[in-house]
From TrEMBL:
Entry EC number(s): 2.6.1.-
Domain Aminotransferase class I/classII large: 25-376
The family this protein is said to belong to: Belongs to the class-I pyridoxal-phosphate-dependent aminotransferase family.
Record-linked CDD domains: AAT_like
Name of protein: Aminotransferase
Alphabetical keyword list: Aminotransferase, Pyridoxal phosphate, Transferase
Gene3D superfamilies: Aspartate Aminotransferase, domain 1, Type I PLP-dependent aspartate aminotransferase-like (Major domain)
Source organism (scientific name): Lacticaseibacillus baoqingensis
Cofactor: pyridoxal 5'-phosphate
InterPro entries: Aminotransferase_I/II_large, AspAT/PAT-like, NHTrfase_class1_PyrdxlP-BS, PyrdxlP-dep_Trfase, PyrdxlP-dep_Trfase_major, PyrdxlP-dep_Trfase_small
Keyword Cell division: no
Length: 383
């Protein structure tokens, strides 16, 4: 047994969600899963693919037609050019893309910078591969990373062999994102320190008031982009992710991908072609509704005594607990779940920098969000 397994645990998000699973009449704002169903035209494309006997392996890197659609999408939407033949991999969700990227880019004994609060899927993978995460607490700057923070983290760990940084934006759990000039400066800092950039841009389609800009625009040679269809097209269960990177990186990572999963599911890949070719605006329709939900929650939470920075992307609110609850977010969420049957994710699930906060997913119906606010208001008033 790999002894590193003793150092990692199931995600705090999943642990908490499972812990409150048996409580009846629960309103859940826990998991990062769209409440929308996959668009009809995508489902029909999958049915047609089954009937047409698309039941055999695709190329290890993915269906060439899907890779071409990914390349066309990133060119038209984000002004980036990737060769579908050797710079794009189709993976089993963005999760596999992250896993093979960290496994291939890092060697045992390396260290990687991780801005926090942090999505809990990264650090266990680093630990498993004997890579040290160096946490950068971004709370003092409203959860936004700066070049100075990178410089300071590296200066504070002169003994560490720091090779890369994980940059997730729009961010889970905070919803913050970065504008063009900020990305240009971050890219320059990464180049100065010779860091690879794992750019988890799975929420690129879900930004409010501004178009997403990829940091690969300014650091293409050192950036691995993580993307997929789960959030943009409400296709979480289809498990289709994308990895885009310069050919030497992509071809090296393809070896891990091949020996890990062979290839992503053929039928799901055919659905993915339909999603990108004929569903380019599917995410935009959902984004309008998400923004309305965000605005409702921001106003309602402020009235109850919670403060939150307005998310510029994704579908999460990272709300600061009122002072009397802030010492232990897990205790607050556990008691809230039992007392008023409302499930939120404790900020501690996203590392120490998340303590004192809770994450609310507004990938939920309007009825659920209104019920959640009613229950939260009652809990705060009675405790």
């Amino acid at each position: 047994m790999n002894p590193a397994l003793n150092q990692i645990a199931i995600s705090g998000i999943r642990r908490f969600n499972d812990a409150v699973n048996g409580i009846p009449d629960m309103v859940r704002l826990t998991l990062g899963e769209p409440d929308f169903n996959t668009p009809e035209h995508i489902k029909l494309a999958a049915i047609e693919a089954i009937q047409a006997d698309f039941s055999h392996y695709t190329a290890n890197a993915g269906d060439p037609e899907l890779r071409a659609a990914v390349a066309a999408t990133w060119q038209s939407k984000y002004n980036l050019t990737y060769d579908p033949a050797d710079e794009i991999l189709v993976t089993v969700g963005a999760t596999e893309a992250i896993a093979i990227a960290l496994q291939g880019l890092c060697a045992p004994g390396d260290a990687v910078l991780v801005p926090a609060p942090v999505y809990p899927g990264y650090i266990p993978l680093l630990t498993l591969h004997q890579v040290t995460p160096i946490i950068i607490d971004t709370r003092a700057n409203d959860f936004s990373l700066t070049p100075a923070m990178i410089d300071q983290a590296i200066a504070a760990h002169p003994e560490a062999h720091i090779t890369g940084i994980i940059l997730n934006y729009p961010n889970n759990p905070t919803g913050i994102t970065y504008r063009e000039e900020a990305l240009r400066l971050l890219a320059s800092a990464c180049a100065r320190h010779d860091l690879f950039i794992l750019a988890d841009e799975i929420y690129a389609e879900l930004t409010y008031g501004q178009a997403h800009v990829s940091i690969a625009r300014f650091a293409r040679d050192r950036t691995v982009i993580i993307s997929g269809l789960s959030k943009s097209h409400a296709m979480t269960g289809w498990r289709i992710g994308f990895l885009l990177a310069p050919a030497p990186i992509t071809q090296a990572l393809k070896k891990i991908h091949q020996y890990t999963v062979t290839a992503a599911t053929t039928i799901a890949q055919r659905a993915g072609i339909e999603a990108l070719v004929n569903g380019a605006d599917d995410g935009a329709k959902m984004r309008v509704i998400y923004q309305q939900r965000r605005d409702f929650l921001l106003k309602a939470l402020a009235e109850i005594g919670f403060s939150a920075i307005a998310p510029e992307g994704a579908f999460y609110l990272f709300a600061k607990l009122p002072a009397r609850f802030a010492a232990d977010s897990a205790a607050f969420c556990t008691d809230l779940a039992h007392a008023d049957h409302l499930a939120l994710i404790p900020g501690s699930a996203f590392g120490q920098a998340g303590e004192g906060y809770v994450r609310l997913s507004y990938a939920a119906s309007d009825a659920q969000l209104h019920a959640a606010i009613t229950r939260l208001r009652h809990y705060v008033a009675t405790h």
